[in-house]
């Protein structure tokens, strides 16, 4: 039995339950579970090879899981145990690809109209909906142009218009900005965020870029080695990383090993003693969050550092500091001019540290 993905009023735009998949002997995804409420964006974030693109292909129907269950808008689209496997064209999804995937011989309007033509929507309604979709992305005046006449950012807007023209229950973004230069990418992130909010889209956004995921997503799933390491709101992800691997990938600060001593813990190589951490055993590791660090000996705890690099930015200087007695580097910004070789004190409050077991260290 195959159920339709287009059901009324659902509690989830997307529900993934215990999904696993292997390529031969290689286990690519391991027991993935995640929910997405209607009108929200889920960011799939992680390094290359973590499994995020494979998971997106499972959602789209380009691949099928070995085990588990996938629902879109309340309808089961992939349940291997029950023989349910809807093909991509039956899932009613909108998709935005990193290479735009526009047909160069077609006008902008015909590119956008393609999903409606596949659904055999009448010509008059099709024309009206294409015009509306192009207006929404600010390209209403370019309907008759060819994609080659447009800039990269405009072509990406055409791809977004095509993805939303059929009003799908879920839109999938597969690293849509990776082919754009940095300045245009930053502009497009804001534009996509505004568009997603305006249209109240339910979406899954795959990226390896931290700022894209944190800017666009209501919830972010950080993936590592075929598993979801943590799913949380951008605020909770930054302020409460569940593991040192999450903290390290998001570059939230400096991870340093600590060892137990008679009166607490010490950051190895520094002689600095910290209050008792909530760990048993003789070793742990702490995250010194960048936002908690201050130049100068003004806080309860102080580290001695040496400036390795000082790079000029429009907002001041980007500093790379080496903690004296250790190989560890700390990066932060400064409005005061310094130069390589300068010795600086770096202060923080122990309450701002994040503690992790030593076994949790990133690989």
From TrEMBL:
Keyword hit for Transport: yes
Source organism superkingdom: Bacteria
Domain ABC transporter, first and last residues per copy: 14-250
Pfam families: ABC_tran (PF00005)
Listed PROSITE patterns: ABC_TRANSPORTER_1, ABC_TRANSPORTER_2
InterPro entries linked to this entry: AAA+_ATPase, ABC_SmlMolc_Importer, ABC_transporter-like_ATP-bd, ABC_transporter-like_CS, Mo/tungstate-bd_C_term_dom, P-loop_NTPase
Top-level taxonomy: Bacteria, Pseudomonadati, Pseudomonadota, Alphaproteobacteria, Hyphomicrobiales
GO molecular function term, any single one: ATP binding
Cited SMART domains: AAA
Protein name listed in UniProt: ABC transporter ATP-binding protein
Organism: Roseibium polysiphoniae
The entry's keywords: ATP-binding, Nucleotide-binding, Transport
Family label: Belongs to the ABC transporter superfamily.
């Amino acid at each position: 039995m195959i159920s339709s993905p287009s059901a009324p009023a659902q509690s989830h735009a997307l529900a993934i339950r215990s999904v696993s998949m292997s390529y031969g002997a290689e286990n690519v995804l391991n027991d993935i579970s995640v929910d997405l409420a209607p009108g929200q964006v889920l960011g799939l974030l992680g390094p290359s090879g973590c499994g995020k693109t494979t998971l997106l292909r499972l959602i789209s129907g380009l691949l099928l899981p070995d085990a588990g269950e996938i629902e879109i808008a309340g309808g089961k689209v992939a349940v291997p145990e029950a023989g349910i496997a809807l093909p991509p064209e039956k899932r009613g999804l909108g998709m935005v690809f990193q290479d735009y995937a526009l047909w160069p011989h077609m006008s902008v309007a015909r590119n956008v109209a393609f999903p409606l033509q596949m659904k055999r929507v009448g010509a008059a309604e099709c024309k009206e909906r294409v015009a509306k979709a192009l207006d929404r992305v600010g390209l209403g005046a370019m309907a008759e142009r060819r994609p080659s006449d447009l800039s990269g950012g405009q072509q990406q807007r055409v791809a977004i218009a095509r993805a939303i023209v059929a009003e799908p229950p879920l839109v999938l973004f597969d690293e849509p900005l990776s082919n754009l230069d940095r300045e245009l990418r930053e502009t497009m992130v804001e534009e996509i965020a505004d568009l997603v909010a305006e249209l109240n889209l339910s979406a899954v956004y795959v990226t390896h870029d931290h700022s894209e995921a944190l800017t666009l997503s209501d919830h972010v799933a950080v993936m590592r080695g075929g598993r979801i390491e943590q799913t949380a709101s951008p605020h909770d992800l930054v302020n409460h990383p569940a593991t040192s691997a999450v903290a390290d990938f998001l570059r939230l600060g400096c991870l340093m090993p600590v060892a137990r001593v008679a009166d607490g813990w010490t950051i190895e190589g520094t002689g600095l003693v910290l209050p008792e951490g909530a760990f048993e055993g003789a070793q742990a590791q702490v995250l010194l969050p960048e936002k908690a660090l201050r130049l100068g000996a003004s806080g309860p705890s102080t580290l001695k550092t040496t400036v390795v690099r000082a790079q000029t930015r429009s907002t001041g200087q980007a500093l790379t500091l080496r903690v004296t007695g250790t190989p560890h580097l700390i990066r932060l910004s400064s409005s005061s001019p310094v130069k390589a070789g300068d010795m600086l004190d770096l202060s923080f409050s122990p309450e701002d540290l994040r503690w992790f077991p030593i076994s949790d260290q990133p690989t």
